[in-house]
Amino acid sequence: MRKRLTPRAPLPVIGPADDAQSLYHQMRPFLEWMRVRNYSEETVVHRETHLRGFIAWCDERGVSRPQEVTRPILERYQRHLFLYRKANGEALSGRSQHMRLVPVKLWFRWLVKQNRILSNPAADIDMPRVEKRLPKHILSAEEAERVLNVPDVSSALGIRDRAILETFYSTGIRRAELVNLYVHDVDADRGTVMIRQGKGSRDRLIPIGARALAWIRKYLDEVRPQLSLAEDEGVLFLAVTGDSIGTRSMGLMVSDYIKRSGVNKSGSCHLFRHTMATLMLENGADVRFVQVMLGHAQLTSTQVYTQVAIRALKEIHTATHPARLERREDREQIDEVKPMRLLHRVYGKSE
């Protein structure tokens, strides 16, 4: 994903600093190997974070080298993750535990392939099951409009923020994808947005609505010239510093607008992604088209939204459940809903 990277402050060494065979010093070439293999910097940082957590846990227990890590030690670490409690007292979800263990498994597999250790203690570790959870909140069309109307469009930043919210709502793109958009990625004539090197390093071309384009045009004409610096790299949405908006700042901004709207639902940028997918399915979009919009590699990822796009299912339930099947005319309601068409939209089956 295209991104102007600012140098990170070096993180402290964990364990013996002068031991080239330590867990920490064996982690560094693995991360460099990932960069050479063109893994995104976000993936590298994500795996480094979880590997540092594992190395710190090992260091507290006197384990300092990869050769000292055994399967029982990894099983103890897995149990540690299961028993760990966050600051709010909640346990880590199965997904969170899984995310922390995957980098460890990949790292030890790499160490074996590079002949740095003789055997892989993580090879047969049973991973925690990942829950199949539905999106926590979905906005209705009316609630989405309430959020969109919160920014003060009489101010320059209000116009920029309205354009950002409209883009999220219209396209359902990820936060990191939006902050990395460039001006030339938006094609107003064709009504499209080109997302380059999105998740999984995949490009995709998706449509964007006329209203979102109108707000982007207003922002480009009236606001962006005020924010851009002499060395303008063409990033679409700029911060007050003239630089691209950070993903964290973007998330906090959107979350604040949602809170101020009074919709009584929590979330941030991803809430618009959930909302767009759900409302499109409820309005008749084929799940495979929504898959392309969201950039999902697997259809099963998109089918999660079919579980919350419940309007058509509710209509079928109302028309067919014995407690409501009181009149013969109810058969007309079933025909109007077209159950087979619903199955076709949701699961990609033919009628």
From TrEMBL:
Pfam families: Phage_integrase. GO terms for molecular function: DNA binding. InterPro entries: CB (IPR044068), DNA_brk_join_enz (IPR011010), Integrase-like_cat_sf (IPR013762), Integrase_catalytic (IPR002104), Integrase_recombinase_N (IPR010998), Tyrosine_recombinase_XerCD (IPR050090). Residues 133-318 form the Tyr recombinase domain. The keyword DNA-binding applies. One of its GO terms (biological process) is DNA recombination. Residues 21-112 form the Core-binding (CB) domain. Keywords: DNA integration, DNA recombination, DNA-binding. PANTHER family: INTEGRASE_RECOMBINASE PROTEIN MJ0367-RELATED, PHAGE INTEGRASE-RELATED. Belongs to the 'phage' integrase family. This is Tyrosine recombinase XerC 2.
